[in-house]
Each structure stands twice: as C-alpha cells, then as structure tokens.
Amino acid sequence: MSDSRSRREPNKTIITPLTLGGSMIDVGTEELLEETPQIVTVEGNRYVLHERENGDVALYSAICPHQRGRITAREEILLCPNHRWKFDPETGECLTVDDERLPAVPVSREDGSLVVETLPSKIA
C-alpha cells in the first residue's frame, strides 16, 4: 500500500490522496487521529476527520448545509462561523437546528492508512 503525502498546518492537514487498488481513496495515516476532530483537505476539498468514542472513524463534509459556510473544529464541537450552527462530531447531527446533519462516510484502517470508498457529498 502506498502512503499519501500530508503536511500539517495550524488546525488543518493537507493530504494528497492516492487512489488505491480498486476504488479506495487514501485520506491520510492513523497519526492524524491523535488530535480529532480536525480539518483535512482531500482533493482540494475540506473535510472533518474524527475518531469517535467507540473507535470508529468518520469523514464529514466541512461545508455547512445551511448556507455553505466552512465548518471549523473546536475541541468537542464542529462550528459554522456564519450563523453559529454547532454539530456533534460523534454523529454529524446539528445541535442548533433539528433534522440537519453533515454528510459523512465511514473510514477504514488499512496498514496504517485511513481509506474511504468515496468522499462525502458537500451538501446533504
């Protein structure tokens, strides 16, 4: 398995993804899970990477479903600065407005890499 190249900037990681055998997309290494939630950029788009309390890993869209604001990761919460919508990093559910959530896909661990079959849609 090939490694993706990543570089760390304050509050975000830029990842140059590799498409692996089949349709899997490498979104980084397990080292990224040392501090989650965090913003990562994959294929030029922003996502939120988060390791849930049960050990599962999710990759969420970092675009707010309200007015397409850029989600930021703030310790235990995901926040859209446009109108202060808050999202739970465990579920992607909006804590401010009922029936809203960030689109997400599950992340698999393969030989130290984090991989997804597809990237989450930008808007649910």
From TrEMBL:
GO terms for molecular function: 2 iron, 2 sulfur cluster binding; metal ion binding. InterPro entries: Rieske_2Fe-2S, Rieske_2Fe-2S_sf. Residues 24-116 form the Rieske domain. Pfam families: Rieske (PF00355). This is Rieske 2Fe-2S domain-containing protein. The keyword Iron applies. Keywords: 2Fe-2S, Iron, Iron-sulfur, Metal-binding.
